[in-house]
């Protein structure tokens, strides 16, 4: 049962990160749909692998923990900033944009710092 939960959470995190990267790339760049899809799939697969390593208790390097944490928390910030602002005020487009930008950037920063502390905490034990 624990293995199924690990797989489900790893896939869920991968899906969040894939959606986040795909949406941000399509909004902010002139990349084609296929290139942004390929980049988002690579990021999603990498985050899924890092999440699996985390859940199985293996050591993660600082170079992997910082960007993985940033992507995971950035994705959560983006999704909750988008959905939260849409639930609170449905008539303002600026609120959604502000919620997405602020929540996503704060999520990236918090995730990077959390990944750094996590990886450094693993070295001590």
Write a short abstract of this structure.
The protein is an all-alpha fold and 125 residues long.
Task: Record the SSE blueprint.
Elements: H1 2-28, H2 33-55, H3 62-88, H4 93-124
Helix pairs in contact: 1-2, 1-3, 2-3, 3-4
Structure explained in plain terms:
With 125 residues, the protein is mainly alpha-helical. It has one domain. It contains four helices and no strands. It starts with a helix and ends with a helix. The mean pLDDT is 86.
Q: How would a crystallographer describe the biggest sheet?
A: none
How large, in whole angstroms, is the Cα Rg? 16 Å
Shape: globular
Terminal Cα span: 28 Å
Q: Tell me the domain tally.
A: 1
Low-pLDDT stretches are: none
């Amino acid at each position: 049962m624990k293995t199924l939960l690990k797989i489900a959470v790893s896939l869920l995190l991968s899906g969040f990160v894939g959606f986040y990267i795909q949406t941000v790339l399509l909004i902010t760049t002139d990349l084609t749909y296929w290139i942004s899809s390929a980049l988002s799939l690579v990021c999603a697969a990498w985050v899924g692998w890092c999440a699996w390593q985390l859940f199985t208790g293996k050591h993660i390097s600082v170079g992997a923990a910082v960007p993985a944490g940033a992507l995971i928390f950035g994705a959560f910030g983006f999704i909750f900033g988008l959905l939260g602002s849409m639930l609170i005020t449905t008539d303002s487009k600026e609120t959604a944009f502000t919620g997405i930008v602020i929540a996503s950037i704060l999520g990236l920063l918090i995730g990077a710092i959390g990944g750094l502390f996590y990886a450094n905490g693993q070295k001590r034990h």
